[in-house]
């Protein structure tokens, strides 16, 4: 079930706060616990809170610690991007969102504000965040000061950007539209958007668009002389009182802000008198410029008036003050109760989200991103810590990965090897490994050595193995580690950094054995591409599988994909798509495809199919227009090891994709093989996969 919605915009002051407040009210009327999250907030002063967060938490009385409601400030994001740590940004955002997701029925996520340094790349950042959180989007675009062409162009660009990332846009809102143009705005949006996208138009509300006297005081760094209780007054107009009073009075408009030098007692008193006169409009406040204040006698006179508007003294001259007031954009603050209520009532009048809430809940994200996938792996491993043995305990890469795994508290590790050698290696690479948190075993010195040898002898004596041979095998770290699993002293094993694939797998085949109804051990790689995760099989084990073996590999790969949260759409790859190709190789793939369909009719499978038709939607639809897999495949089965191994390496090197694996399929207990050229990250990820396999997937 979907548990979130992302509110995004293209620009600053679009009015997305109205959508956030109104939608929060709607959601709280339908669900018990609704959370609020802002991935990126504006920089704030020390001890100052983000205004959006403060307003939502305060008004709706949400019980969320402030520090849990955001991930980064704008300057932190810019700093990390400059350091090349964009991935760390997304990882942290996912982690903080998922924490809220565990505590709340639904999360309202509000995108960034497009103000200040770094706003150029902000829209792309918001699309990436929404994609990685796996939630649909509401786009808010302001129509203020835009032509129809500019407004529709902005909306089309925004919609397409999210569509390209496979993020569903659930609604488009045109905000700050002139009242008489509301129907035209909705009609124009409907003309450029699919039917399943809700379209809404909201008029420009002057009382929301105009700044309050409090905002003006803050912007001008002013000093309030009178009228502290009326700082929520809104300034509808402003004008300079520089002419004679009799002429200035004729220029006053309702809710006017009077700007005048502080020594113009005539304008000050005249404006205050006009405010209480039934013959003139009410004013919102008075700004006294130039750092000047009226004489004491005038101040005493003002103090004695029964009806006083805010009177503010500022240091700047009249010209500068007038320009600054004109540039002030109104915001909604936690104590702006009247504005908040107006905002919510406006939302409820013009936006009907009741029809969309059900769709929000039923929404399923399209695919899974690499960051989502990796986050999910870590969380699953941590929930039920498993005992993993690493036979190559003296390898520098193994030790570095071990420290990371232990520090992350993901697994219980056993390292095999001579303790003194391990300590020397750690000293050489200057790695501080906490020995109290890792089990180190030298096989020949282990108290279990003879027991393991005896067990191996009993298991293999029918193959001519004697006791001396059994002891020799148990002195080998691969055999010893595998026997640990067999005897229940470990839950899984990862090896291969310094050994061949055969050296790693042979002991498992000899006494761990394959699962019932499985005749072939195979492997998959989880290929973490830019915005999706695909499963490649088999790229590591079987050189030339038969049609029967290929079908079995396919079913195992589909089950592995599903176990790791990927809904399998399977492409059986060949040099031909559909029925056109002829030849032994393509016929083998065709036969394997039919076997999969017979044994697992529930699976979505297409074959034979070429790689481009499998993953490119336009090519897929042109070659196989009726296929539910073509162009959307996420489980790709290669016809032989030569093709699979070279393809995964080509994709990895040319695209920068992260290849997690190989993960072996078909054994009774998890044993996974590393490449001898593996990196620390490869080891780290493979151990996590193994731990999850050991949980009984």
Automatic annotation (TrEMBL):
Known catalytic reactions: acetyl-CoA + phosphate = acetyl phosphate + CoA
Residue span, DRTGG domain: 215-325
Pfam families linked: AAA_26, DRTGG, PTA_PTB
UniProtKB keywords: Acyltransferase, Cytoplasm, Transferase
PANTHER family with a match to the protein in the record: PHOSPHATE ACETYLTRANSFERASE
Domain Phosphate acetyl/butaryl transferase positions: 373-691
Record InterPro entries: DRTGG (IPR010766), P-Actrans_bac (IPR016475), P-loop_NTPase (IPR027417), P_AcTrfase (IPR004614), P_AcTrfase_dom1 (IPR042113), P_AcTrfase_dom2 (IPR042112), Phos_Acetyltrans/Butyryltrans (IPR050500), PTA_PTB (IPR002505)
Domain remark text: The N-terminal region seems to be important for proper quaternary structure. The C-terminal region contains the substrate-binding site.
TM stretches of this protein: none
Subcellular locations according to the entry: Cytoplasm
Name of the protein in question: Phosphate acetyltransferase
EC class: transferase
Coiled-coil zones: none
Gene name linked to the record: pta
Entry GO MF terms: phosphate acetyltransferase activity
CDD domains, per the entry: DTBS (cd03109)
Pathway: Metabolic intermediate biosynthesis; acetyl-CoA biosynthesis; acetyl-CoA from acetate: step 2/2
Oligomer and partners: Homohexamer.
Subcellular location, principal: cytoplasm
Protein family (similarity comment): In the C-terminal section; belongs to the phosphate acetyltransferase and butyryltransferase family. In the N-terminal section; belongs to the CobB/CobQ family.
Described function: Involved in acetate metabolism.
The keyword Cell inner membrane is assigned to this record: no
Assigned EC number: 2.3.1.8
């Amino acid at each position: 079930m979907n548990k979130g919605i992302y509110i995004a915009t293209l620009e600053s002051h679009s009015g997305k706060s109205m959508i956030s407040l109104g939608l929060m009210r709607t959601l709280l009327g339908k669900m018990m616990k609704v959370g609020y999250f802002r991935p990126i907030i504006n920089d704030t002063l020390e001890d100052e809170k983000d205004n959006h967060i403060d307003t939502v938490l305060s008004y709706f009385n949400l019980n969320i610690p402030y520090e849990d409601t955001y991930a980064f400030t704008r300057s932190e994001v810019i700093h990390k991007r400059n350091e090349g740590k964009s991935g760390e940004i997304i990882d942290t955002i996912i982690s903080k969102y998922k924490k809220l997701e565990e505590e709340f029925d639904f999360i309202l996520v509000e995108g960034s504000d497009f103000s200040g340094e770094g706003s150029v790349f902000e829209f792309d950042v918001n699309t990436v965040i929404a994609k990685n959180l796996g939630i649909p989007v509401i786009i808010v675009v302001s129509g203020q000061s835009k032509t129809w062409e500019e407004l529709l162009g902005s909306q089309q660009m925004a919609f397409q950007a999210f569509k390209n990332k496979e993020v569903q846009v659930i609604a488009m809102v045109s905000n700050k539209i002139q009242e008489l143009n509301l129907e035209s705005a909705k009609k124009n949006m409907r003309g450029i958007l699919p039917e399943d996208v809700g379209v809404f138009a909201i008029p420009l509300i002057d009382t929301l668009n105009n700044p309050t006297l409090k905002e003006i005081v803050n912007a001008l760094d002013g000093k309030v002389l009178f009228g502290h209780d009326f700082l929520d007054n809104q300034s509808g107009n402003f004008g300079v009182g520089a002419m004679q009073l009799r002429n200035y009075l004729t220029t006053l408009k309702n809710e006017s802000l009077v700007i005048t030098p502080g020594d113009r007692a005539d304008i000050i008193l005249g404006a205050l008198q006009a405010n209480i006169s039934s013959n003139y409009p009410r004013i919102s406040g008075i700004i006294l410029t130039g750092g000047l204040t009226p004489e004491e006698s005038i101040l005493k006179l003002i103090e004695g008036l029964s009806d006083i508007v805010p009177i503010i003294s500022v240091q700047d001259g009249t010209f500068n003050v007038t320009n600054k007031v004109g540039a002030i954009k109104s915001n909604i603050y936690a104590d702006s109760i009247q504005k908040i209520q107006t905002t919510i009532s406006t939302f409820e009048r013009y936006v009907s989200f009741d029809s969309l809430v059900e769709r929000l809940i039923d929404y399923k994200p399209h695919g899974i991103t690499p960051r989502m996938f990796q986050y999910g792996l870590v969380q699953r491993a941590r929930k039920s810590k498993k005992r993993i043995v690493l036979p190559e305990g003296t390898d520098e890469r193994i030790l570095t990965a071990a420290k990371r795994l232990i520090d992350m508290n993901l697994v219980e590790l056993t390292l095999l090897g001579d303790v003194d050698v391990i300590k020397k290696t750690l000293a050489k690479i200057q790695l501080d490994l906490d020995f109290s948190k890792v089990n180190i075993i030298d096989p020949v010195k282990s108290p279990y050595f003879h027991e393991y040898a005896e067990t191996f002898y009993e298991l293999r004596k029918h193959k001519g193995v004697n006791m001396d041979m059994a002891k020799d095998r148990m002195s080998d770290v691969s055999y010893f580690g595998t026997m640990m699993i067999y005897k229940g002293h470990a839950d899984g094993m990862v090896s291969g950094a310094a050994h061949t694939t055969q050296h790693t797998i042979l002991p498992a085949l000899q006494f761990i054995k394959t699962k019932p109804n499985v005749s072939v051990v195979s492997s998959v790689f989880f290929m973490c591409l830019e915005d999706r995760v695909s499963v490649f099989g088999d790229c590591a084990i079987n050189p030339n599988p038969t049609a029967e073996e290929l079908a079995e590999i396919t079913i195992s790969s589909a089950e592995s994909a599903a176990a790791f949260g990927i809904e399998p759409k399977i492409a059986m790859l060949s040099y031909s798509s559909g029925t056109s190709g002829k030849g032994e190789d393509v016929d083998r793939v065709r036969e394997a495809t039919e076997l999969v369909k017979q044994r697992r009719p529930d699976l979505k499978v297409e074959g034979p199919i070429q790689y481009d038709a499998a993953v490119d939607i336009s090519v897929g639809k042109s070659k196989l227009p009726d296929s539910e897999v073509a162009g959307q495949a996420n489980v790709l089965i290669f016809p032989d090891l030569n093709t699979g191994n070279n393809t995964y390496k080509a994709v990895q090197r040319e695209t920068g994709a992260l290849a997690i694996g190989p993960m072996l399929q078909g054994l009774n207990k998890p044993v996974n093989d590393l490449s001898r050229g593996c990196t620390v990250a490869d080891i780290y990820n493979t151990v996590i996969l193994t731990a999850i396999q050991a949980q009984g997937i």
